[in-house]
Amino acid sequence: MLRPVLASFGLSLALLLSACGGEGNSSSAMGGSSPGSTTVSSNVVKGIIHNGVVRLQRWQGDSYVEVASTLTGADGSFSLNVPDPVPGEVLRLELGLSADAGKPTEMLCDAVACGSAGFGQWAPMTNAPGLASWVSVDAQGGITVMPMTPVSTLLVRYAERAGGGHMDAASLDLARQRIAALFRLSVDDLMVRPGNVVNSVWLNAASPAAVKLSLLAAAFAQLADGSHALETVIQGYSDAFVGNNGHLVQDGAPDSLGDLYRGLSLVVGAAGNPVLQGEVSSWLQNAVASLESGKLSTVCHDNNVCQAFSSDRFLTALGTSPDSLGGDLRRVMLEQNAPSLEQLLTQQLSTFGWVASADSVTVAGIALQSVGYTLLGSLGVAPAPANGLIPTLNAGTRILHIAGVQNGMTVNLDISLPSLFLAMQTTKTFTYGVTGTLENANVIASIDGTLAINATGTDFTPLLLAFVGASQDPNALLNSVSGILKNGKAAFTLNGSASLARKNSDSQLAIQGLGTLLVDMKGGVGGAIAASGSVDHGSLVLPNGSSFSIDKNKNEFLTFGLGQDGTFSAKFTALVLAHAADVTATGSLAQFGTLLTNLRNGVSVQLEAATLNLGAIVTQLLADVSSLHLVLNGEATIPDFQHTYNLALAEGHLSITQPNSTDVAIGLVFSSQGVLAEAGASWWLLGLDLADLAHPAVTLSDNTGGEWRWSFDFSGMLALN
User: Fold this and answer.
1) Strand, coil or helix: what is 689?
2) Do 643 and 328 meet the contact criterion of CB atoms below 8 Å apart?
């Protein structure tokens, strides 16, 4: 449940730097026209947007709330007031369409064509383009605002995802670094005001950064055509940028940098301006020449803009004395002969690649097929051979033997079955035993366990009647299963061991022990599911040699209750990076009981309607998962170091103290983009890049724009990029 602190710290990373201001886009505190407000002034360019509605939004509770709005002028400029600015907050700007028929929203076409409008002509806007930007407030109440363009929109979408749904100073800073590196601009360049590429006078006077931003904005319009609306193009690039963890595919795919640059080139041609063509030519040629079809763009294009990732700065931020977290990590690096934290992480991660191999997928598939065979055997039905597996049911001994070869994996399993299910109406107790192996040239999986089910609180009569009834009505069977889901009650006891090991090394994923679970499908408030359980004793061994164990003789335990509050408590021993840690923790997962209940209700209602809409079930499940609130308090003591770390987690924020201290050493925020962590004045991001499912990668990034990547493929070989 809790990773010991050294493992957590070794994989922890990234958050909060104050946003820095851009030229021509900052305002002083109390600069507005009314007391308690500050003026925000900037512009909207996609090309120039006239009579667009700029809405200023503040994050309140769990959503953005509009606090001010205004219309853009003929040059795309706008000005509005931030009421009661809060130092450190980040507000959102969003563009909408005018509802005033006398002041319709229109865009100055900066593409070869915008529908019926040509280059340099005004085109009416009938759909909001989905543009967004941001406003930050510094410690003195001063304002920084980024001009609103498609580039700012990508930045906002990424910052909101990295911030867990809304922007804060940390996620904003990370997003600015990502966007700057992607387009080969500096963070300050992003803040200059773009302008009108149709106007030669402006082009001749504008800075190179302003020209680039203006042309990038125009490129999005160039990619819009009859089948791709402008808002669709912007949304597509936003989704791609966020989904690829702050990257874009370089070329050869939809929403790529290559397409954007080619669109930009067409805009330059349409402008017919020699000065513009000269300024852009070398930049554009170098950018296009560096593209590789099918590759993700790298984070750091230019060392003058961003720095290479360095963990030494991270360790220094965690402390330099022996009695600090940084000191403990350096001690472990020395013991493991790792010259850097990157190398230490590489050593640990390299043992996990084979776990995600095709061999593991085959093992999982065989396990699911064996479960199906077991259910049929419990009903006295002899299963038919399938997918290379041959099941043999001995009615006298109630042993189901499964043998064969599937996808190169040799299977040899014996499953002991309880008495015929149809005869279990009286005792309602079931015991299943499983022993055997699955192996090929690469891995071997073994299992030796028992599952005992005591369902004395469940009425099986409707289910039995559905099986033995003359009509064999499928609806009766579905309704009886639904009834068990609504009213069943059972105690489960799982005792035994299972492992998946690599043959050419001692690396294995293994678990053993004794666990219990009591489930009452209507035992909670309003018929909700009530569940509780414990682990009496057991151990978990990971491929890198780390282990976690519970021993009742040492007063170690794990208990949980999955009701309204979802409480749990744990005390266990862990061995990580050759050091033992004693860990204690208490906490709750407040909405877990609700998640189980909603899942039960959704499935039972669909069964009664003789349907099973998995899409609807998954949608509800994902919505419930996003609302879980994990709260945890604990400590981890490392006897070798004579150090104790305190840990506290609430609302997705984890803080870990320095050893034997109440001073926070590192703070972490969990979001859809990964783990964003603060150490001193620096921030890091640990994420998972799944843009290429054949070669997923773990990424470690910092606020300077540097990135470290570990990628692996399903052949099981882990390599450092």
Assistant:
1) strand
2) yes
Burial 414-444 (b: 16+ CB within 10 A, else e): bbebbeebeebeeeeebebbbebebbbebbb
Question: CA–CA separation, 653 vs 691, rounded Å?
Answer: 26
Q: Which residue, 642, 539, 686, 533, is CA-closest to 596? A: 533
Q: Which pLDDT tens digit goes with each residue over 460-469?
A: 878 777 766 5
Buried b (16+ CB within 10 A) or exposed e, 154-188: bbbbbbbbbbbbbbbbbbbbbbbbbbbbbbbbebe
Bridge partners, residue 538, by sequence: 513, 550
Tokens 């493991």 belong to residue: 336
Contact between 240 and 231 under an 8 Å Cβ cutoff? The reply is no
Integer angstrom CA distances of residue 701 from 9, 184, 245, 708? 15, 17, 10, 6
Contact between 442 and 359 (Cβ < 8 Å): yes
Tens of pLDDT, residues 501-556: 999 888 999 999 999 999 999 988 888 999 999 999 999 999 999 999 999 999 99
HSE at residue 226, side-chain half, CA atoms within 13 A, is 1
Position 202 scores a pLDDT of 87
- Of the two residues 457 and 421, the one the predictor is more confident about is 457
Q: Which DSSP letter does residue 716 get?
A: S
Choose the weakest-confidence range: 146-160, 305-319, 532-546.
305-319
Given a cut of 70, whether residue 251 has pLDDT beyond it is yes
Residues ≥6 apart with Cβ < 8 Å to 286:
none
In what helix (H) or strand (E) does residue 37 lie, and over which residues does it extend? strand 37-43
pLDDT interval class at 33 (50, 70, 90): very low
Distance CA 219, CA 196 (A): 13
Strand partners, 415: 400, 434
The pair phi, psi for residue 654, each rounded to 5°, is -115, 130
pLDDT digits (tens, 9 = 90+) for 583-631: 999 999 888 888 889 889 888 888 888 877 777 788 778 777 777 888 9
Q: Nearest 5°: phi and psi at 408?
A: 80, 0
Task: Tell me if 321 sits within 8 A of 665, measured CB to CB.
Answer: no
Amino acid of residue 307: Q
CB count within 10 Å of CB 127 equals: 11
pLDDT at 462: 81
Question: What is the per-residue pLDDT for 718?
Answer: 38
Amino acid letter, residue 396? G
Contact 265, 284 (CB under 8 A): yes
CA dist., res. 61 & res. 66, Å (int): 13
**Average pLDDT, integer, range 60-80:** 93
pTM, to two decimals = 0.72
Alpha carbon separation from 101 to 95, 106, 362, 581 (Å, rounded): 17, 12, 63, 69
Amino acid at 30: M
